[in-house]
Amino acid sequence: MAARTTAGAAAAALALLALAVPARADGGPPDLTRFYGQRLSWGGCDVKDAPPEMRCARLTVPIDYARPADGTIELAVARVRATGTGAEGAAPKGSLVFNFGGPGASGLTGLGGFLADTAALARAYDRVSFDPRGVGRSAPVRCGPEAERDGGDSSDDPPADAAEVRKELVAQARRTAEECRAATGKVLPYVGTINASRDLDVLRQALGDRKLNYFGISYGTRLGAVYAAQFPGRAGRLVLDAVDSLTADAAQSALAQATAFQKGLDAFLADCAAQGATCPLGATVAAVTGALDDTVARLDRTPAKTASGADFTAADLRTSITDSLYAEQLWPLLAQGIADLSATGDPAALDRINKEFAGEDENGERAADDNSREALLAVNCADDPTRAKDPAAELASLEGRFTKASPMFGPDQVAAAVSCTGWPAGTDYIRRINRTGAPPILLVGTRGDPATPYQWAGETARRLGRGVVLTYEGEGHGGYAASQCVRAAADAFLLAGTLPAEGASCARETPPEH
After folding, report:
1. What percent of the chain has pLDDT over 90?
2. I want to staple 101 with a disulfide (CB 3.0 to 4.6 A). Which of 156, 218, 246, 256 is the partner?
3. What is the distance, to the nearest Å, from the Cα of residue 446 to the centroid of all Cα atoms in its chain?
């Protein structure tokens, strides 16, 4: 997939850059000098469980890069200094900036948890992350109670006319969009990956780096790809793990994910059955599948009760499964949790998985600065130009395809196809990225990734023009944290610029015990 940068590719990159950085009304470029001239002032971090070596700062950026005089916001930034020193005490290779996905994941929260995995990079790089605009501590998107509801599943409600269910899903999406506009205000139209990428370049300059060295995971790969398109001459070594699509609209993305999650579920069931007597659900695929199906059917009839007295429904069980498919080391806990629920009616283990993934405490409450659900919706809608003319009809046309692709997850996930109803059409810039002219980029695709299906790695590599795909032949979302082989290859690229050969792969590794 690596390709030479031709004159045509360079011209295309310049054209894309011109679209990405709008001009002033008088024909000149907007004056961004005061933003690019700032330096960060580092201090303590008001972040739960932050490691003692982590320091934090605020970065000022314009709300609207086309009209920087119209107002500014501040972005929260965190850094852990390199343990090695270069000239004048600087890190030998400067900064390595991380985005941990979502969209909506807090970089300040995520950085501390990723230090152990990136220990081999500690001498060479200052490890840096930030809350992108609209996220966490950086002018967060706020919505109302509609955004807290799970509109993607109706199967646990009393039977209703299908047309009425679709109508209510669409109405709920419109209410959510209106609540987000009312609660967030003037920043909302400027939340999205195009402006987050511009922020990333201001951050690069404020850190004192001539080139951006970057590690993006999941949604972070979309951000990295957009940066490569907007600023190809400033891109350094970019690693993209669990690669997002640049071209799929909401319906296409949701269908691909439903298909991939079903594939992941099948792998989980087969893996458990292969363990024979040690699998708590059965010793054959048929037995394990039957145990799961029976548990779902039982919850459809009568929900279980959590320790707090809340209902634990079939939809909650499906959420436990999808959460656990993100990391293979959670599979034993998932299997035992399903077995416990089946045998005793106790959903405690599964409920704990759901709360941990949702960032909720034992009472189901999120931290005050966690707006990940709202930010995910806002950023995805800003990045997607497609809107159905008749959303209810769109749902009706898709339901059969989603159910066929995934009997377990398809009916829940089809609502995502119209989740941006009520939002203005987003940018089509990302769809048009093609041969950026940036230096070679390392992309990691995991064969059994349920959230960012493996084929997206190859598709995005072709769009970038000089992407090299390293395949991890395992399960779960992302390869770097799961595979020593992937980690070694990515570290070699970040430290020495050495890319793996085209078609290289890493064998599936046994995950550590959870």
Report:
1. 84
2. 218
3. 15
Q: What are the Cα distances from residue 80, in Å, to 57, 88, 120, 299?
A: 12, 17, 14, 46
- Say if residues 212 and 236 touch (Cβ distance below 8 Å): yes
Token code pair at residue 436: 């950026």
How do residues 6-37 score in pLDDT, each as one tens digit? 333 333 333 333 334 444 444 568 999 999 99
Return the higher-pLDDT residue of 17 and 158.
158
Q: Is the pLDDT of residue 384 over 80?
A: yes
Catalytic residues: 218, 449, 477
Closest by Cα among 376, 383, 375 to 430: 383
Q: C-alpha distances in angstroms, 168 versus 23, 163, 225, 373, 471?
A: 42, 9, 36, 20, 42
Pick from 251, 267, 268, 266: which is nearest to 402 by CA?
251
With beta carbons less than 8 A apart as the criterion, state whether 152 and 416 touch. yes
Does position 344 have pLDDT exceeding 70, yes or no? yes
Query: How far is residue 302 from each of residues 156, 200, 308, 320, 445, measured CA to CA in Å?
Result: 10, 49, 17, 18, 40
* Cα dihedral sign, 142-145-146-150: positive
Instruction: Calculate ∠ Cα 271-275-280, nearest 5°.
Output: 95
CA distances (Å), origin 501, targets 85, 203, 242: 31, 32, 19
What contacts 28, CB < 8 A, 6 or more positions away?
none
Average pLDDT over residues 268-278: 95
Confidence check: pLDDT of 298 > 70: yes
Looking at the DSSP bridge assignments, the partners of residue 311 are 305
- 25-34, 313-322, 335-344, 460-469: segment of lowest average pLDDT: 25-34
Radius of gyration of the chain measured on its C-alpha atoms: 23
Q: How far apart are CA 466 and CA 340, in angstroms?
A: 49
- On average, the pLDDT of the chain sits at 90
Q: How far apart are CA 273 and CA 283, in angstroms?
A: 5
- Compute the distance between CA of residue 272 and CA of residue 225 in angstroms, rounded to an integer: 37
Q: What is the pLDDT of residue 320?
A: 97
SS3 helix, strand, coil % of the chain, rounded to 5?
Answer: 45, 15, 40
DSSP class of 376 = H
Q: Which residues pair with 150 in a beta bridge?
A: none
The string of pLDDT tens digits covering residues 79-90 is 999 998 765 667
pLDDT number for residue 49: 87
Strand 441-448 relative to strand 467-475: parallel, antiparallel, unpaired? parallel
Q: List strand residue ranges (DSSP E) for 81-195, in order.
A: 95-99, 126-130
CA 175/CA 149 separation, integer angstroms:
11
Tell me the DSSP string of 402-421: HHHH-TTTHHHHGGGGGTTT
What is the structure's pLDDT at 18?
Answer: 37
